[in-house]
Amino acid sequence: METNDEAARATLLLDRADGTTTSRVLALIDRLGIWGAIALASCVLSILSVSIASVVHRITGDPIGWTGLFNTAVIPFLLGVPTLIVLLSLLRQLAVTRSQLTRLSMLDPLTNALNRRSLLAYAERMLESAGDEPLSVALIDADWFKRINDRHGHITGDDCLRGITEAIHGRLPQQAVCGRFGGEEFAVVLPGFTEQAAAELAEEIRGDVAHSCREVDGKPVAVTISIGVAGSDCQIRNLDELLSLADQALYQAKDEGRDRVVQATGLIRSPAASPPTGSGFPAGS
What gap in Å lies between CA 110 and CA 112, rounded to an integer? Predict the structure, then answer.
């Protein structure tokens, strides 16, 4: 799966949810094509012009005649088409520029995954629209990443992060998105996935990372990841609570030895498994 496709999909879903007038106009232009949109706009202007002339004729009683009606109908085409060509071309260019700026603002420049802000916006929207359908999130953290940076350098560390991103995208279904949550931590939003199904997918991702990231740039980095999974089928419909549970599960995976997947379901029944507040993961996690 291309990461750019992921950004485009998230942008499309968020735009559809916003339902702005501009997005609807641009969607209509895309559907009709530039010349189809010009023809439609010219016809609408022509009909409006004839309608206004007819109303004026009825009010004033002045004769309009067939010649007058013809001129009234044709003038919008003669004068309006060049103007519409310029306006619609500018509108399309504006849409392209807006799309490029939106994508730049949504993507993490290193991994080309969604950035934290965009991922949270997508997750909020998906959770609101899920209704009774399940939605799960998975928090993914690279194990002992500081050691990799210290031993092999930050350039290799960056390549490891890109390799993790590629492995994640290789397993994601069409409706899911991945974002860089910060540092060496990633988050995956999985609409339609129960916590159990998300954990099974997370296990596949964990195995793929361990296999594909054994060597990076010819260096034996042996990257592994720990994953915490939480699902809204646990009767949690609040994103902050869902992320908090996934974070607790991720902390538990780290505490149990790393390179594993932990579900949040068991943690709900075991408050003692919650991570201590404040410090987060141990140094060099």
Answer: 6
Rg (CA), the chain: 27
257: left (phi over 0), alpha (psi -120 to 50) or beta: left
CA 283 to chain centre: 31
pTM: predicted TM-score of the whole model, two decimal places: 0.69
Q: Which residues are catalytic?
A: 184
* CB within 8 Å of 274: residues ≥ 6 apart: 248, 267
CA atoms of 245 and 266, how far apart (whole Å):
10
SS3 assignment, position 95: helix
Q: What pLDDT score does 48 carry?
A: 74
Asked whether 221 and 209 are in contact (CB, 8 A), the reply is no
Q: How many CB atoms lie within 10 A of CB 57?
A: 15
DSSP state of 216: B
Q: Tens of pLDDT along 208-240?
A: 999 999 998 888 999 999 999 999 876 777 899
Tokens 């002992």 belong to 144
For the chain, the farthest-separated pair of C-alpha atoms sits apart, in whole angstroms, at 91
Q: What is the average pLDDT across 190-218?
A: 94
At 143 the three-state DSSP class reads coil
Cα distance between residue 41 and residue 34, in whole Å: 11
Q: Where are the alpha helices (DSSP H) in the chain?
A: 3-18, 21-32, 34-60, 65-106, 116-130, 145-152, 154-169, 195-212, 239-255, 265-268
Cα distances (Å, whole numbers) of residue 40 to 26, 91, 126, 216, 278? 14, 16, 35, 56, 61
